[in-house]
């Protein structure tokens, strides 16, 4: 049965890969997009959408919008006709910066539709739909569930096993977001088709160490664990100033720096008392190259996507 309530959905930004965890590891961050869905009484247009926030004017308000397409996907899945709906989007997650903006839209649309339809789908079903739409799990899973999440396919590739990883409170994520974009497609095109056995072993070992470093806060492990040979060496050249920003972050006290998702946002991990200094150093390094950037010391969003329902006035 369709709910007549106004559905408010809050979805966190995410940082994916974390160095050696390419396409399987991601964490939710305390930066959010908010979506409000109100079912309309017929007759009404199928979709009325408004967007506010930075870069809102760059997104479609039509039926091709990813948020609305994900909304429709639930009704397709359950074999029901979607209701006409009014959607208000409040954007805080930058577009095309490696912070999971598309994942917030996918998860937001799926969760809202499921709530309006009376919760016919389980969280696991929503998760699997989100992965199918996005194509990989590293952003959508933590966006939905919160925390730091490792997504593993079973041997035959037909099922997902999701494992939440503990993140020690003394490890602070600091994001440096430049004022230029890098498309995920471009970032994937530079990757090789095949890797050596040496590189595969290197990444497996470093991912294992990263899991322990994040859980314990052991900084010497963290400093080693963030190294990667699968994606970062190939993507660094697509990010102007990468080396300068990395050097500045490490000099200011960061334990390591990685590309957030496909980039160009860079993620430093550091102690809470050094977070502001690391943030300032990263911004300054880019500024010295003529690139404007914003730095945000954040925290891990433990709760993931939040849904709040409010009754609507009777017609």
Quickly give the structural class: alpha+beta
Number of distinct beta strands: 11
Quick one: CATH class of the largest domain? Alpha Beta
Mean pLDDT: 94
Uncertain segments are none
What's the Cα radius of gyration? 20 Å
Helical proportion, percent range: 25-40%
Keywords:
315 residues, Ribosomal Protein S5, domain 2, 2 domains, alpha+beta, single chain, 11 strands, Alpha-Beta Plaits, 7-stranded mixed β-sheet, 4-stranded antiparallel β-sheet
Can you walk me through this structure?
The chain has 315 residues and is an alpha+beta fold. It folds into two domains: 6-165 and 301-310, Ribosomal Protein S5, domain 2; 172-297, GHMP kinase, C-terminal domain (Alpha-Beta Plaits, 2-Layer Sandwich). 34% of the residues lie in helices and 25% in strands. It has ten helices and eleven strands. The chain has helices at residues 66-78, 101-116, 123-134, 140-145, 184-189, 197-216, 219-225, 232-235, 242-251, 275-287; strands spanning 6-16, 25-39, 47-53, 85-91, 148-153, 160-165, 172-178, 256-259, 266-270, 293-297, 306-310. Strands 1, 2, 3, 4, 5, 6 and 11 form a seven-stranded mixed beta sheet that branches. Strands 8-9-7-10 form a four-stranded antiparallel beta sheet. A hairpin with an 8-residue loop joins β1 and β2. α1 packs parallel to α2 (101-116) and α2 runs antiparallel to α3 (123-134). The radius of gyration is 20 Å and the shape is globular. The two termini are 18 Å apart. The model has no long low-confidence stretch (mean pLDDT 94).
């Amino acid at each position: 049965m369709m709910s007549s309530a106004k559905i408010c959905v809050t979805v966190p930004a995410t940082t994916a890969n974390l160095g050696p965890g390419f396409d399987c590891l991601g964490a939710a961050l305390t930066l959010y997009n908010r979506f409000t869905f109100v079912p309309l009484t017929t007759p009404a247009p199928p979709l009325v959408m408004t967007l506010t926030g930075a870069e809102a004017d760059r997104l479609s308000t039509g039926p091709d919008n990813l948020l609305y397409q994900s909304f429709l996907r639930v009704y397709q899945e359950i074999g029901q006709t979607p209701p006409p709906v009014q959607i208000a989007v409040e954007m805080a997650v930058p577009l095309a910066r490696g912070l999971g903006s598309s994942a917030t839209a996918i998860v937001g649309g799926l969760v809202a539709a499921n709530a309006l339809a009376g919760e016919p789908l389980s969280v696991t079903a929503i998760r699997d739909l989100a992965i199918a739409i996005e194509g990989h799990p590293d952003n959508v899973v933590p966006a939905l569930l919160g925390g730091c999440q490792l997504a593993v396919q079973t041997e035959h590739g037909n099922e997902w096993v999701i494992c939440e990883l503990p993140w020690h409170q003394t490890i602070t994520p600091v994001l440096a977001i430049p004022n230029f974009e890098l498309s995920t497609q471009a970032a994937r095109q530079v990757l090789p088709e095949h890797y050596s056995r040496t590189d595969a072993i290197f990444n497996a070992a470093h991912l294992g160490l990263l899991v322990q470093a994040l859980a314990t806060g052991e900084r010497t492990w963290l400093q080693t664990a963030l190294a990667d040979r699968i994606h970062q060496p190939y993507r660094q050249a697509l990010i102007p100033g990468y080396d300068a920003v990395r050097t500045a972050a490490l000099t200011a006290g960061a334990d390591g720096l990685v590309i957030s998702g496909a980039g160009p946002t860079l993620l430093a991990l550091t102690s809470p008392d050094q977070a502001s200094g690391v943030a300032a150093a990263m911004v300054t390094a880019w500024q010295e190259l003529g690139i404007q950037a914003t730095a945000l010391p954040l925290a891990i969003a433990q709760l993931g996507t939040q849904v709040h329902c409010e009754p609507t006035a009777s017609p």
